[in-house]
Amino acid sequence: MSTEYPVRAAAKARTLTELETRLVRCRACPRLVAWREETALAKRPAFADWEYWGRPVPGFGPADAAMMITGLAPAAHGANRTGRMFTGDRAGDLLYATLYDLGLASQATATGLDDGLELYGVRVTAPVHCAPPANRPTTGERDTCRVWLVREAQLMQPTLRSVVVLGTFGWQAALSALEEAGWSVPPPRPAFGHGVRTTLTPAGPTGAEVTVFGCYHVSQRNVFTGRLTPAMLRQVLAEAAYTAGLPVERPGPG
């Protein structure tokens, strides 16, 4: 499968369901395909009885979401195992517990596709949909995969009002994707930082503004070192949800 597949397949998708169906068939990046499938076969001893997903991981959440959360890429033994973004690892434990606390998720835990979790007004996705070695996609892999995020944003355009980007890599990828999807990024291009926000205007006569929020990634390292605390994460998510018009209390000063 060539790198042309994502471009053709994403463009043909008319709904997010169609996009997800096409995405999980993607084999455009040989290094990522080999790694995700090797990991799915080798497994981690703690998950020896699991049948790993081992494919590209689609976005998760309602098609009419007003708020998007985008990170880096699936974790090798998290989403690559469970088949859902931020599900089955400690980063996801914090993210979904915080969304639940804000009233944006049906439960605080995320363990697998059959756990009953629902999101309210929020969709979780990533700029790279396959688990990468050492959790580091190459710039070429990022660019090849970006068309999926571009199309996802385009299909969400009628309702999307805010985007929370976790980490520097995600920030750069998300701004490029949103620009390709039809929003104008203000010059000079805003730099990533925790708590940074920037408003993108629709490039055409239709559509609405989208406010993009920067947030440190919910990685174990960031949480263990105190770079990101649960309170810091909650503040950003609450601000983004409130900006998107979701039913959360107006957040106080961070």
Question: If you had to describe this structure to a student in words, what would you say it looks like?
Answer:
The protein has 254 residues and is of the alpha/beta class. Helix content is 38%, strand content 11%. The chain has a 6-stranded mixed sheet, sandwiched between helices. The longest helix has 18 residues. It is globular and about 45 Å long.
Describe the structure in brief.
InterPro entries: UDG_Type-4/5, UdgB-like, Uracil-DNA_glycosylase-like, Uracil-DNA_glycosylase-like_sf. The protein is an alpha/beta fold and 254 residues long.
State the main characteristics.
single chain; 254 residues; alpha/beta; Uracil-DNA Glycosylase, subunit E; six-stranded mixed beta sheet; 9 helices; 6 strands; 11% strand; globular
Average pLDDT, rounded to a whole number, is 96
Radius of gyration: 17 Å
The total of helices stands at: 9
The assembly state of the depicted protein chains is single chain
CATH architecture: 3-Layer(aba) Sandwich
How much helix is in the residues? 25-40%
Give the end-to-end Cα distance, rounded to a whole number of Å: 47 Å
Strand content: 5-15%
Could you list the spans in which at least 5 consecutive residues all have pLDDT below 50?
A: none
Q: In total, how many beta strands?
A: 6
**How would you classify the helix and strand content by structural class?**
alpha/beta
Instruction: Characterize the overall form.
Output: globular
CATH superfamily: Uracil-DNA glycosylase-like domain
Name of the CATH class: Alpha Beta
* SSE series: HHHEHHEHEHEEEHH
Question: What is the count of structural domains?
Answer: 1
CATH topology: Uracil-DNA Glycosylase, subunit E
